[in-house]
Amino acid sequence: MRFYADLRVRENPEITPQVILNMLFEKLHLVLAEQVRGDVGISFPDVKNGQKNLGKVLRVHGEKEALESVVLHPAIERTADYAEIGRIRQVPDNAAYCIVSRVQAKSSPERLRRRSIKKFGMSEEEAMLRVPDSKAKMLELPFITLNSKSTGQKFRLYIRHEEASNSGNGKGFSTYGLSAVSAVPWF
Questions:
Q1: Residue 39 in this model has a pLDDT that exceeds 90
Q2: How far apart are CA 167 and CA 160, in angstroms?
Q3: Given a cut of 70, is residue 138 above it in pLDDT?
Q4: With 80 as the cut, is the pLDDT of residue 18 above it?
Q5: Partners of residue 3 on adjacent β-strands
């Protein structure tokens, strides 16, 4: 992963930076899914430990050709009113590495209810009483809010940045640009 491009949220008095970042991330996800890529990763260079805010920059990492096909995609170019699409640059030689991965809470009430219905033959009402929404375990990590294309529901995609000892192979990134094993440059 020798190259990167920054998608930087533009100031907008009517829309919060987080809403714009959510929209940028969703567009990027759709482009990565359409192109069936596994060689483009992301990071949020403004993120700080202990904060739930990912900042105002979505950094896209990859080889130059891969980044050109993503950053120059019409869906990304159409976000120019909301984000400054930076040019593709070479990663600094002294960059560290970071694994940027998705983290899912183990106790989603919806998931626990579905399991109760299937395992114990409960009705939806019984499952709601047994597993109320208050049982949800909230993660203390920054997140992106997305709309599920399959269910139409909004959900939070929690993101963890952790230091990595090396870059890995630059492959194996999801359609979100995340990976539990491959690292991206961190600077």
A1: yes
A2: 17
A3: no
A4: yes
A5: 62, 90
Please give the distance of CA 118 from its chain centroid, rounded to a whole number: 31
**CA angle, 164 then 146 then 161, to 5°:** 10
Q: What pLDDT is recorded for position 135?
A: 64
Q: Which of 36, 20, 16, 173 is nearest to 83 (CA)?
A: 20
Q: pLDDT averaged over the chain? A: 91
Catalytic residue IDs: 29
Tokens of 12: 């907008």
Please list the alpha-helical segments (H only) found in 13-167. 17-35, 64-71, 74-77, 109-120, 124-130
84, containing H or E segment: strand 83-85
Range of the domain at 12: 3-104+138-186
**Residue 84 maps to a domain:** yes
Where residue 160 sits, what CATH number does that domain have? 3.30.70.2540
112 inside domain: no
Phi, psi at residue 15, to the nearest 5°? -135, 135
d(CA 149, CA 142): 22
Task: Give percent of the chain above pLDDT 90.
Answer: 66
